[in-house]
Design brief:
Keywords: Aminoacyl-tRNA synthetase, ATP-binding, Ligase, Metal-binding, Nucleotide-binding, Protein biosynthesis, Zinc. The chain is of the alpha+beta class. The chain has helices spanning 2-7, 23-32, 36-53, 69-81, 155-167, 181-195, 227-231, 236-243, 256-280, 284-290, 303-321, 333-348, 354-377, 386-401, 405-420, 424-436, 456-469, and strands spanning 85-88, 91-94, 131-136, 151-153, 170-177, 200-207, 210-212, 215-216, 252-253, 439-444, 447-452.
């Protein structure tokens, strides 16, 4: 989203905050015998490494809770002064009955919040739905001095205070997981409006979860994979492609077959771009010298190229402007653009008039620019070269196949020997065995090359699963 907003010309202030102190962090740190803030700092750094691998841009600000205690205490004081919060034995609770619009985001009714279900039972609360703004210090927990005694912030107040610090009380977009709508974001609205009546967020964007067997991935269920576990075997671009293959509000079910498909799609994209660079290189000097007409105007691109560029640009803008609908972006019109490039590269090998050749060269170049721009905005354009991306993808494929490149080259040689001796059964078996492991052999002239592919066995299993899940056709009688 950040890249797209910038592409549209907006000057974006992007804030991503880190909760570096809360109940779970304290509990985990105590189990490890580590300082909670040290534990948080270590994981924040590791998170940034993962985000960099996934081509995520750095935010304008990355505040941590522990660095903003003054702002948090100031906001709590404002809320108390507005008679919307109260202190009990060192704890400070927000009084939800003082928030007339409580439930506006989630649609939850205050009377539906029964004690012991969504909220903790605490007889000191005036209303069971009241939530903590400040928690009194407990033994073995970090704490900070405050007007209500030593303690630490409640979870919800942290986000409001840091948002107000960097974005003011009125800002455009607030994001988060769909599970945060209630109570977290609902409580944020209530406490922010209590501190400042003009507080508002124009758009709330809530993302669906990555699921495993249609269950939300979570540590408690033990059904999660870390980003690094996945990128050990798959290129980060393949993982990013997989993640944007569904609308951000929709759940996305993790599956190896989809990661394989995403990896294959990324390879095809970058092979097309590399082929384009290689094919245009011999013509580069000629096109620069002779690519303009007598009046200094560039040779016109073909009508088909103009149509391809216009369709791709319009399709991309329409879908991204429709609530960031990334799921169909790399299919359909985008694939047509790749096919146009590949088809044009074939045409370039044919003999033709100089003007036609120059027009074709410029046409391919302009379509490639539009394709590259789409990839850039989607975060699928890394700083390395196309050749390096292809090599990295091949390395991951070899790792998944449990092979070294020397093993593949040896098998290619064995296949060549088998074909020469007309042992086609052995030749076909070598090719089939490699395909089952995600390695495709392609005969290009007298040479055999290899590239990653979706393992054939996995393709067949996925197809069988779909067929088994599809009900038989129904017949109707009158």
């Amino acid at each position: 989203m950040l890249r797209y907003l910038q592409h549209l010309g907006y000057e974006v202030t992007y804030v991503r905050n880190f909760t570096d102190i809360d109940d779970k962090i304290i509990r985990r740190a105590n189990e490890l015998g580590e300082d909670p803030l040290s534990l948080s700092s270590r994981f924040c750094e590791e998170y940034l490494v993962d985000m960099n691998d996934l081509q995520c841009l750095l935010p304008t600000h990355q505040p941590c809770v522990s660095d903003h205690m003054d702002q948090i205490k100031d906001m709590i004081t404002q809320i108390i002064e507005k008679d919307c919060a109260y202190s009990v034995e060192g704890d400070v609770f927000f009084a939800v009955e003082k928030s007339p619009n409580y439930g506006q985001l989630s649609g939850q009714r205050l009377e539906n919040n029964r004690a012991g279900e969504r909220v903790a039972v605490d007889s000191r609360k005036r209303n069971p739905a009241d939530f903590a703004l400040w928690k009194a210090a407990k033994p073995g927990e970090p704490s900070w001095e405050s007007p209500w005694g030593p303690g630490r912030p409640g979870w919800h107040i942290e986000c409001s205070a840091m948002s107000a610090q960097y974005l003011t009380f009125k800002f455009d977009i607030h994001g988060g997981g769909i599970d945060l709508i209630f109570p977290h974001h609902e409580n944020e609205i209530a406490q922010s409006c209590a501190a400042c009546e003009e507080s508002s967020v124009s758009y709330w964007l809530h993302n669906g979860h990555v699921t495993n067997n249609n269950e939300k991935m979570s540590k408690s269920l033990g059904n999660f994979f870390t980003i690094r576990q996945i990128t050990e075997r798959y290129h980060p671009l393949a993982l990013r492609h997989f993640l944007i293959s569904a609308h951000y509000r929709s759940p996305l079910n993790y599956s190896v077959s989809q990661l394989e498909s995403s990896s294959d799609a990324i390879f095809y994209i970058y092979q097309t771009l590399q082929d384009c660079e290689d094919a245009l290189l011999p013509f580069l000097e000629v096109s620069l010298k002779e690519g303009t007409g007598q009046n200094g105007n560039l040779v016109a691109i073909t009508a088909d190229a103009q149509k391809c560029i216009s369709r791709l640009h319009e399709d991309f803008e329409n879908k991204m402007s429709d609530d960031l609908n990334t799921s169909p972006l790399l299919t359909g019109v985008f694939q047509e653009a790749l096919k146009f490039i590949n088809g044009s590269l074939v045409m370039l090998k044919k003999k033709q008039q100089k003007k036609q050749q120059l027009s074709l060269i410029r046409s391919v170049t302009e379509v490639k620019k539009e394709v590259t721009e789409v990839l850039r905005i989607l975060g699928l354009l890394p700083p390395c070269t196309c050749a390096e991306v292809l090599q990295q993808l091949k390395g991951k494929a070899l790792k998944r196949a449990g092979l070294a490149e020397d093993d593949v080259m040896r098998l290619i040689e064995d296949r060549a020997v088998a074909r020469k001796s007309q042992d086609f059964k052995k030749s076909d078996q070598i090719r089939t065995d490699l395909s089952a492991r995600g390695i495709a052999l392609m005969d290009v002239g007298k040479e055999t090359v290899w590239r990653p592919c979706v393992p054939v066995e996995k393709e067949e299993k996925a197809k069988t699963a779909v067929e088994e899940a599809t009900p038989p056709p129904q017949t109707a009688s009158s």
